[in-house]
Amino acid sequence: MKNLKNQNILITGAGRGIGRLMALNFASHGSHLVLLDIDGEAIEKVAAQVRQSNVATWCYRCDVSDREMIYAVADKIKAEVGKIDILVNNAGIVTGKAFLDCTDTEVQRTMDINIMAHFWMLRAFLPPMIDTDHGHIVSIASAAGWVGTNSLADYCASKFATVGLDESIRMELRKKNIQGVKTTLVCPFYIDTGMFAGVKTRFPRLLPILNEDKVARKIVQAVKKDRAVLKMPWIVYTVPMLRLLPVKMFDWVADFLGVSSTMDEFVGRKN
Ligand SMILES: NC(=O)c1ccc[n+]([C@@H]2O[C@H](COP(=O)([O-])OP(=O)(O)OC[C@H]3O[C@@H](n4cnc5c(N)ncnc54)[C@H](O)[C@@H]3O)[C@@H](O)[C@H]2O)c1
Fold this sequence. Notes:
By secondary structure, the protein is α/β, with parallel strands linked by helices.
């Protein structure tokens, strides 16, 4: 089990949802927190809660869709905090519209936040981890990184890309024999944070809408155990095997499980 005490953990999108809950959970293990979010007020509130665990906390307002802002904030963090031990690329958004109803701007923003930001954050914070042979990259993807879904084309594309980026980084680290830098890819089905408000599941026992506290706890446990991949619920692990089926049958299974209609009543966040 990895000891998280006194580790500097940077979380993007830490202002609410699982980003916030991971911050609180990491703090309970004695980790120091570097909180990033586009919503500066939200991370200040999270920081006030985190500090109750007597850990150091820094807040940086950062729009991760803006590469230059990421690099400027990263320089500040390196000067003010020092080395980041664990980077959690978590910030994400969803448009939730049919492909042709999405505007160009919406598609671009989804890709910028959900995947391009991972590249820029990695370019800023991975080199010191490699130099010291110590670090951990946590990539929050989704079950939508394994199955294409109705009304989620931009979102699924960004999450499939996240899965590919994580695996490639893991392979590169292995090839260079960098054993002290670990990676964890996280692929949950829908979570009750409000991001996907309105989504429905046909078989709640098989494909439950996940509880945000439980998800955050499991992610922290996965980091402690250096787990390479965490999928939730267990049925998400079976997707690569289902892909051995002919495409028509795979699509039928997705329809039967209700995956293709989960987004039919999606409303998302109101703010
Ligand atoms: N909620 C789900 O059902 C679900 C399921 C699977 C995966 N995920 C993924 O988990 C991650 C967190 O989701 P959540 O449900 O906690 O979402 P959320 O909407 O509750 O929180 C997202 C956070 O990201 C921040 N953010 C948004 N745009 C940003 C930007 N440009 N720059 C910086 N911060 C920004 C928001 O302010 C917010 O604090 C996302 O990557 C999401 O895709 C969510």
